[in-house]
Design goal:
Length: 189
């Protein structure tokens, strides 16, 4: 009788251990998550070229020895450091009312391929959104879409994390380009 009772308790304990391990194992799996917030904006960059100071929203502040501060350098603009303060709009019209500013910099960082590294914030000044969203990452410009990291934010976007998919929506030579930024936030507070 004691032997049957011991076997029952041992089997129950063994079953408990197996169930515990299966629960722990299933909780470690990565689950696909849906974004807690999605946003789409356009920002319009007009680079200073020596003749458009009144309308320029960006300027070259660092250039390699073979470059200058009014024209982007040759060799895929390698070495140019550009700062910007671009208007953000909800549609692709540069004359639409801005809801904020894209403020930051980009560095053309490769001689062989047309690519840049970005660090910027979308700073909102509308009644719909308050605060900022911060971004950083590589921007391989020749790709149709590029993903960069959302690394934080303030105000309505406090400590947010996510991904931004950037698409070049339009460009006019080396003076103007418009980017569509499709943002998916996965951590919203």
């Amino acid at each position: 009788m004691a032997s049957k009772r011991f076997n029952f308790i041992a089997n129950l304990f063994f079953l408990f251990i197996i169930i515990s391990f299966s629960i722990v194992e299933s909780s470690n799996k990565i689950r696909a998550r849906r974004p807690c917030k999605t946003l789409t904006f356009y920002f319009h960059d007009i680079i200073y070229n020596g003749e458009n100071a009144k309308n320029a929203t960006s300027a070259i502040v660092g250039a390699p020895a073979w470059g200058n501060f009014t024209k982007l350098a040759g060799q895929n603009h390698f070495g140019d450091l550009v700062v910007f303060d671009d208007p953000i709009t909800l549609d692709n019209n540069i004359h639409s009312s801005p809801i904020g500013r894209a403020q930051g910099f980009y560095v053309y960082d490769k001689k062989e391929i047309f690519t840049a590294w970005l660090g910027f914030s979308l700073v909102f000044n509308s009644t719909e959104h308050k605060g900022s969203i911060n971004f950083a990452g590589a921007d391989p410009l020749m790709n149709k879409t590029r993903d960069i990291s959302v690394i934080g934010g303030t105000g309505d976007f406090f400590m947010t994390r996510g991904i931004a998919t950037i698409t070049t929506d339009a460009f006019e030579g080396e003076v103007y380009f418009r980017l569509c930024v499709d943002i998916k936030l996965y951590e919203c507070w």
